[in-house]
Amino acid sequence: MQPLHGELLLEAWERGARQNALARAVVMLAVADNGRTRDEWDCISLPERDAELLRLRGMTFGDELRGCVPCSHCSTRIEFQASVSALRQRVESMRPPTELGWQFGRYRFSLRPAGTRDLLRAAEAGDARRDLLRACVAIDTEDSDEALTQCEAGLTEQFNRLHEGAETQLTVRCPECGAVENADLDIGRFVWSEVRHAAVAMMREVHELASAYGWTEESVLEMSPARREMYLEMARHERFA
């Protein structure tokens, strides 16, 4: 896996901008790691996907993660920071088995973790939760609809247990009212927001240097960040001198 710098950053932004929020997570991973196809990334479990997203985020933007959430009591913006490596270690420690099997009455169930493709398909369905369960479960009976109806509550409980590692929560305290909030961190959305911001900033730098020196986008993107920053400083100095 490579960090999303230079051309890879712009490619991830360009491809992700045409996708919905669910698909952007695997688009970024597919751009950064050509060892797996997009289809393969679509099928890996959600906890595994999030662990890889955290690895990519650390490689691209560093280990410190900063953000903010609104206080549900007084609406104050609560700033937080977290270690990407610590979050990744937690997600990996909760990585689910490839399959979970159990017996309930006369039915034998086998449940696999959901992947991004399952979420995308379920989001298009009339009953997203039931369709997601149906996609991930195999039932040892010819009348799977009846078994699913009778055992849906227990199946949902097992599904939630299997996907504990896909939920990342941060506990923060409001500096104004002192309320404690459990903030859900959507890793895919968070990393995409950073990629989008960084890509826009990169394109502004390309525009500035191309305007000042006549360089192509490719030549600017091939520069190291330190060299590009130095040329930007010189171009701005000349412009305002």
How would you describe the overall organization of this protein?
The protein has 241 residues and is of the alpha+beta class. Among the domains are: 1-44 and 186-241, no CATH class; 100-162, no CATH class. It is 58% helix and 15% strand. The strands form three sheets. Strands 3-4-5 form a three-stranded antiparallel sheet. The protein is elongated and about 80 Å long. The model has no long low-confidence stretch (mean pLDDT 88).
Give a concise summary:
The chain has 241 residues and is an alpha+beta fold. Among the domains are: 100 residues, no CATH class; 63 residues, no CATH class. 58% of the residues lie in helices and 15% in strands.
The helix/strand class is: alpha+beta
Helix count, per DSSP? 12
Number of strands: 7
Which runs of at least 5 residues are low in confidence (pLDDT < 50)? none
- Biggest sheet statistics: 3 strands, antiparallel
Distance between the first and last residues' Cα: 43 Å
* Physical arrangement of strands within the biggest beta sheet: 3-4-5
Shape: elongated
What is the CA-atom radius of gyration, in angstroms? 22 Å
User: Average pLDDT across residues?
Assistant: 88
The helix fraction, in percent, is 55-70%
Compressed to H and E, one letter per element, the order equals HHHHEEHEEHHEHHEEHHH
The oligomeric state is: single chain
Please report which band the strand proportion falls in: under 5%, 5-15%, 15-25%, 25-35%, 35-45% or over 45%.
15-25%
Keywords:
12 helices, about 240 residues, single chain, alpha+beta, two-stranded antiparallel sheet, 3-stranded antiparallel β-sheet
